[in-house]
Amino acid sequence: MANDRSLPTRERLLAAALERFSRDGWGGTSIRDLARDVGIRESSVYKHFGSKQEIFDALLERADARLATVASGLGVVVDSPPAAVPAYVGITEQRLVEVADGFFTAVLHDAELVALRRLFVVNQYRDPEIGRRLRDYWVGRPVAFQSAVFTELIATGELRPGLDPEMVALSFFGPVLALIQLAETGEADEQRARAMLAAHVRHFRSTHLRES
Asked: In what helix (H) or strand (E) does residue 203 lie, and over which residues does it extend?
C-alpha cells in the first residue's frame, strides 16, 4: 500500500508508518525510513506531517474512523456514550452477541487494526510513552467508554441497581481482551474463542440485566 502510487502521498506515508512501527518499533523507525519506503524526499514528508508524533496521532485518528465505520455497519455508534446508549436499551441477547462478534472480527482481521495492536505489543516495552498511549487506546479508553455507557444503563433501569459501572465494564471487557489473545493463535482457537465470546455475552447479560 505504501508503494501504491494511485493513493495520495499522505495515505501512503501512513501505510508505511503503520507497517514500519509495528515491525521495527517507534524508536526503530525514522522519517528517512518512511520517505524511502514511499519513494519521496525526506523533506517532502514534512509537507504532510510536522513530526513522527503527528504521524502516530494520525494513525490513531484513522483507527478511530475505522472503528466508527465498523460500528455503523453493526447499527451502533462509538462517537460518545450518550449517543451509544439507545442502541443497547432493550437489546436482545442474539443482537448483543452479533454486535460483540462484529467488533471481534474487525479487531482480529482488519489489517489496519491488527497492525495497530501489533504496534502496541512491540512498543509497550521499547518506548514506554508510546506504549502508554497505545495501552490507553486499546484498554483505558474502551473501559472508560463502557463505564459511561453502563452508568446510563444502570440509571435507566436496564441493568441491576447498585452496580459499579467501572467494575461492570471491566467484567465485560476483560474476558474479551483475553479471548482476542486466544483467537490469534490459530483458526481452531479463533472458532473456540468466538463460541466463548457468545457464551460470555450471554452470561454477562443474564447476571447484570435487571430482572423484569
From this structure: helix 187-208
Backbone angles phi, psi at 41, to 5 degrees: -70, 150
Look up the pTM and report it: 0.87
CA distance 72 to 64: 12
Within 6-163, residue ranges assigned H as helices are 9-24, 31-38, 42-45, 52-73, 81-84, 93-109, 111-126, 128-135, 141-155
Q: Note whether 163 and 174 are within 8 A (CB).
A: no
Identify whether residues 41 and 128 lie together within a single domain: no
Total residue length of the chain = 212
* pLDDT in the model for residue 104: 96
CATH number of the domain bearing residue 31: 1.10.10.60
The whole-number average pLDDT for the span 50-55 is 93
C-alpha dihedral sign at 78, 123, 111, 100: negative
123 and 183 fall within a common domain: yes
CATH at 125: 1.10.357
The grid coordinates of residue 159 equal: 441493568
Q: Which domain holds residue 191?
A: 59-208
Distance CA 3, CA 16 (A): 8
Cα separation of 169 and 149, whole Å? Answer: 9
Q: Does residue 126 sit in helix, strand or coil?
A: helix
